[in-house]
Amino acid sequence: MKNIPLLLIPAILVHVLLLGGYGLTTAWFSATLPSGAIFELTGGTAALALALLTLGIEVFKSTFSSRASLLDHMLSLALFIVLLLEFLLWSAAGTGVFALLMLMTLVDVITGFAVGMAVARRDLGVLRE
Predict the structure, then answer these.
(1) What is the rounded radius of gyration, in angstroms, for the C-alpha atoms of the chain?
(2) Which ranges of 1-129 would DSSP assign to H, the alpha helix?
(3) pTM (2 decimals)?
(4) DSSP reduced 3-state for 19
């Protein structure tokens, strides 16, 4: 579980919604706010909220250096490439929700490698002293 990118969970949720015919705009929950505005939680916004939470955990996971973390970074890169190809080639994936999910996987890849290099430098600095 440590070396599986957690952003795979919201990506699977989005795929289930798209392939299951539910769509990303179907309301899961609605409530009237004190201002009178109606708040609707759709499948797409729920998936994005889950993706934000998992992105935060992924950034935290990238601070640890091990062989498993290298595999995690490679799988995150593979997930980004798959989502990019789907966004470009699959018409159902051409939505703002899918684009933001793909952008979050790119942020995961970039921060994972950047933080991983900083942690590796820190570890090597400790070894030199």
Answers:
(1) 18
(2) 8-19, 43-61, 67-89, 96-128
(3) 0.85
(4) helix
For tokens 């505005």, name the residue.
37
* pLDDT category of residue 1 using cuts at 50, 70 and 90: low
Q: What is the mean pLDDT of the chain?
A: 88
Q: 56 to each of 24, 65, 69, 127, how far by Cα in Å?
A: 23, 17, 15, 29
Nearest CA among 58, 67, 66 for reference residue 110: 58
Residue 78 in this model has a pLDDT that exceeds 90: yes
What is the β-pairing status of strands 38-42 and 27-32? antiparallel
Q: How far apart are CA 7 and CA 109, in angstroms?
A: 11
pLDDT score, position 91? 92
The CA distance from 62 to 56, in Å, is 10
Distance set, CA 85 to CA 15, 56, 75, 102 (Å): 14, 24, 15, 10
